[in-house]
Amino acid sequence: xxxxxxxxxxxxxxTLMALERPKPQTSDRLAESANTNPAVIRRLLGALSxxxxxxxxxxxxxxxxxxxxxxxxxxxxxxxAVEEPGLLGMPRTAPDRACPVGxxxxxxxxxxxxxxxxxxxxxxxxxxxxxxxxxxAAANAAAKSAA
Length: 147
Fold this sequence. Notes:
Elements (H helix, E strand, L loop, with lengths): L5 H15 L6 H8 L3 H13 L3 E4 L5 E4 L8 H8 L22 H21 L3 H18 L1
Antiparallel strand pairs: 1-2
């Protein structure tokens, strides 16, 4: 079962805001860019706003903007704003405790998952939104010059 796409979509829309700033971005524009429903974007924007990463303004000329500069927004903050903790899901039912594997598999997998998640979160903390936006801008420039 594939994981959630909330983090990827959140990074997508925040990167667009970073590249288009200071112009406010509407949920319709963000949804079009991410190829998803505006309601999905509005839910993400609510979580991102609650985490202090975006501001939204209603009415004509309104939309969403970054709450602070992209260099000051880490991917870890974005992840924590929109995702639930835990990279590895465990089965809903307990394994057979009479089985030599069933007795210990959950403990073994928990340790592995905790280490993997710690490494993942540490890496996210090392990357900021400005870096992502810079990579995207460079890719766009390279594509234009190749055309």
